[in-house]
Amino acid sequence: MDLKGRTPPSYIAVEGPIGVGKTTLTKRLATTFNYQVLLEEAEQNPFLEKFYRNRQQAALATQLFFLFQRSQKIQDLRQADIFEPVRVADFLIEKDPLFARINLDREEFQLYEKVYQQLTIDSPRPDLVIYLQASTDVLLSRIESRGIAAEQVIERDYLERLNEVYSEFFLYYDGAPLLIVNASEIDLANSDADYSHLVDYLLDIRSGRHYFNPTFFG
Fold it and tell me: pTM here?
């Protein structure tokens, strides 16, 4: 891809609810920019399948595992040599409490908050955050299509709540330049045209809040 002499943001974080395509986009960006990739690797969480089947019973263990995993990746990032390749991640550590708020009871959330505050004090600031949005119907369709067995029991109500808390979080987010992408009508996995339009757009972002709606490109 021709970047036309433009320099990509050095540290990009891609976010969005389950099924929206954040890991796919993260990997494509890493390939395009020759970046090191940081992934959540949800499949390593031994509590996740139990969580999808019984959220109340497994929520705290699932949440704490993810928190420790993500914070360790952030620590590794901070301690890496300054000459390491630039990076793109499929998570933003500041988003972690969103899941805790909707899945944990009051006492569990208080415990989670104490651990979170201890682990996330010096998280590096991304140079760009990409927030992928999609309707609940689209998320359900993509989850079904990718066929991960543990995810097939995810309920519509849960996805709707996730969409709501994500929208609220990014409505007020000002921790880094933000690109909000309408991903309902875009195929970043298989459409080179959609992907190229997005990359061309993000290369010019240096500050502020921006919106990418693929319907504008016809």
Answer: 0.91
